Amino acid sequence: MLPPLGLVRKGLHRTTEALAEELAFARPGAATPDWNELEWQLASAAAAAHGISPLLSQCSTWRHPAWTRFLVAQREHVEHRHRHIASLLERIDASARVAGLPIVPLKGSALHAIGLYAAGDRPMADIDLLVRDADVDAAIVLLTDLGYVESFVQWKHRVFKPAMGEPILGLGEHRDTPVNIELHTRIQERLPISTVDITERIYPADPRPGLNPYPSNGALMSHLLLHAAGNLCGRSVRLIHLNDISLLATRMVARDWEVLWAGGSPWWALPPLRLVSRYYRCAVPLFVLARLQRDCPLLLRMISRGRTLTQASCSALWLHALPGIEWAQSLREAGRCLHNRFRPSEENIKERADMVRTQLWLKGQSWVTLSHGRRILTRLTRPVPRMDTLYVVRAALEYGASST
């Protein structure tokens, strides 16, 4: 049985904001929060959902036995998975060299490669790889030879999973959860309708067979910010995304930031950088924020000014009727966004079906099997909780009950 959802909503807000402060400032000797057991369990849910449990195990000074055990266990699971992922990347690199195939490992893989994180610090749910359009078939052969099969295709990427192994039910990371691979030919996001594509600044100018790094820290930052923007648009950003950006920002100088403006206005970069600055208050140079304010549309600029991590993430319990509409670049685009909510395209319907089929947190949930019309009617008559949030909350409650 879940506690009253009103208590869950308030508890997630309280614990999420406290976790963000604890991670960003890492203040030695900070007082342990005076939380009840439900709030400690919700803190575990928020830490797992935001991908920060392993980092907190190294920096949090809060003293609560079940909390400490959870963090330590999560770090052990993540470190074990990191070794597996590192070994898999080595195999991909060796096979790609033999095949003459250039590949760019993206996001988490790249952050580990440049030393921003040590083994066990940062969870990686999957491996993201970028290849040229002409190399897709060769990449599929490579992944097939490594024991992978295609799971589904979306407009952003193809998803491959190991032929053997199933996801593990539970809270947070598990060492035995299979490592999926997402194969990209473009680096792009829909915000919420128009597509922003930055592939040209991500793919190396002179690639070599095997694994290739990003061309520069500025290129990596561009990708992290666009990815965060896409998640902000869907209200699914994670604290680990903000931590990634803050750490990389400390390595950048003025010329690195200039890459953001290569190929067009990075209007989409202001909201994620503002959110980073809210919690990591010295990470982003003021001149970058000032310049981006001139690029960002007025409505989005206004709304992003006061947004919190809770509001921008799954820590906000209730579903939003029109997530991301403030990102629309025109009234026409806002109209298309509204139309798509009431009359989803065939592509949207297929994507939803693929999610229901493949995502563990949607298994057995009656909400996702309702007709589109019934879901709209339900949203108009009462608040509807997010399924991903309820999944992690239930897992945290079960974890807490089993550890007492």
Automatic annotation (TrEMBL):
This is Putative nucleotidyltransferase-like protein. The keyword Transferase applies. It comes from Luteibacter rhizovicinus. One of its GO terms (molecular function) is transferase activity. It comes from the Bacteria. Pfam families: NTP_transf_5. Keywords: Transferase.
